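Hello again,

I reread your note about wanting to compare the complex against the isolated chains. To keep things tidy I'm splitting this into two emails, and this first one only covers the full assembly. Below are the input lines as submitted, including protein chains and any nucleic acid or small-molecule components. They are followed by the predicted structure of everything together. The single-chain runs will come separately.
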Amino acid sequence: MCISDDPITAAYQSYLDELVDARLLIPSGVDGVYGRSGTFEDIIERFEDYVTEKGAHLKPEVMRFPPIMNRKHYLCTDHIETFPNLMGSVHSFMGKEKDHLAMIDKKQKHEDWSKCLDATEVMLVPAACYPLYPASTGTLPQGGRIVDLRTYVFRHEPSVDPARMQSFRQREYVRLGTPEQALEHRNYWLKTAEGMLHAVGLDAKPVVANDPFFGRGGRVMAATQREQDLKYELVVPVATAEKPTAVVSTNYHLDHFGHAFDIKTSDGNVAHSACIGFGLERIALALFRKHGFEPATWPAEVKKVLKL
Amino acid sequence: MCISDDPITAAYQSYLDELVDARLLIPSGVDGVYGRSGTFEDIIERFEDYVTEKGAHLKPEVMRFPPIMNRKHYLCTDHIETFPNLMGSVHSFMGKEKDHLAMIDKKQKHEDWSKCLDATEVMLVPAACYPLYPASTGTLPQGGRIVDLRTYVFRHEPSVDPARMQSFRQREYVRLGTPEQALEHRNYWLKTAEGMLHAVGLDAKPVVANDPFFGRGGRVMAATQREQDLKYELVVPVATAEKPTAVVSTNYHLDHFGHAFDIKTSDGNVAHSACIGFGLERIALALFRKHGFEPATWPAEVKKVLKL
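Full-complex prediction:
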């Protein structure tokens, strides 16, 4: 692999090469798309168990959505306006046999056959909590809802940074309820997650952050999001200490999703929401970077927390 | 929901309604796309543990691929020729700000904005073993390979049959090696899986089967596949006993993938392959149908096997 002149890119490539050599990641020929080894998966499962343990007292509803969601629901969020470059739209072949022959002919001539496809009724899930909001339309029970989610999410941002995958898992806890409930949830998890990362030996620190909104209008939205203190991330050095990686992210959405999907609190107000998301692959990558590629040799206190 | 005149479709709708009422499945507004409850997931995890137990003596390599794969690798299989109607092609927005404004304008006018997107470098995974073959190009170690896989796969076939999901998980064991090794693997797992399904109280039986190849040419391929005894399924009554559902499927691919991805055995022949796939959602649906929606009340011998 050619090594970049840019030291950060070179650090990404170097860590990626190490992960592939150690057979923790299996390359696919597409940047940001990798298979995971059994060892890699085991670390994710054990970290997830730790998350479950820390969330158990909240008595969350557990929901697991597949990696696709209803296109109509996707369009009720503003993702197409704000992150169009990251979206994944699922298309399929819906023609008859003669259309199929024409498509195969294009494929054989190395022409663009993808325009022979039509959009299906689904999109790839951009964040683990997106499918929850349309499933919450109506009036919340008294006290609101706390939901435990995990799914593979898609972001079209090919990169040699092993921590910037196109398809990865988010484990989330979402609070739907009053503004106070949403903020309390955000604050609880931000502090708890920081403690959890420290307990597994990661030098995590919270930073105010913003989403990578698209275009010039996006820069205004990013500034507003920071001013309003809506997004915090926990960042950890992964490939390089110069540019630490967000491994956990919290968002207070105000009443954004409550409005979009007509979700009301039991006293009739528009629901507010907040979420915490654990980037499971990123946490595994940070742990392998910090403690080495052999979990058997990790520090005793980390092994104890992860029940290794 | 309107009830179909066709008794099988009516049985599908009726079981789906029961699953939604019991909150085991969470509807999304798209046929075949559902969230799963914690109880549903727990059954899948426990059945998977049972699979892992039965596969342990094979000492498989564990690999977990995400739900997307390299488009170029997809095109090295013949999926686009044989199952174009089931494919999932991932498209995204790759334009500039003015193109974005034009796309949003189309969206607001309820015109087809999806043609403003371009094909990305990835496709949705059609079967859990597809990403393995391109990762196996070259010469196999002596004795070949046995690989344990699981991923979410996509099939564009919207249906009210709760067992025909568009996005579901396959747990697979794949054998790459000589024809004898591939057939032995297929035979071991077909027999083992039948015993496993019986042990959890499911009335499974093996049947010769064929894949749903597209078009008129596909009918010939299906007949050939049956004549050559290449595909067996284990079928179980789920929504209706009149039309039992395949919950496990085995395929002997001959040297199809060996040729497509240049996989050789250690003695230099083109590798053969065989796989067994457990349809995890279908197995859970069959168990809920047979034993009821409350796992705590399932028969003692089933609870023992699943460590419930």
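For quick reference: The longest strand of chain B covers residues 167-177.

B.
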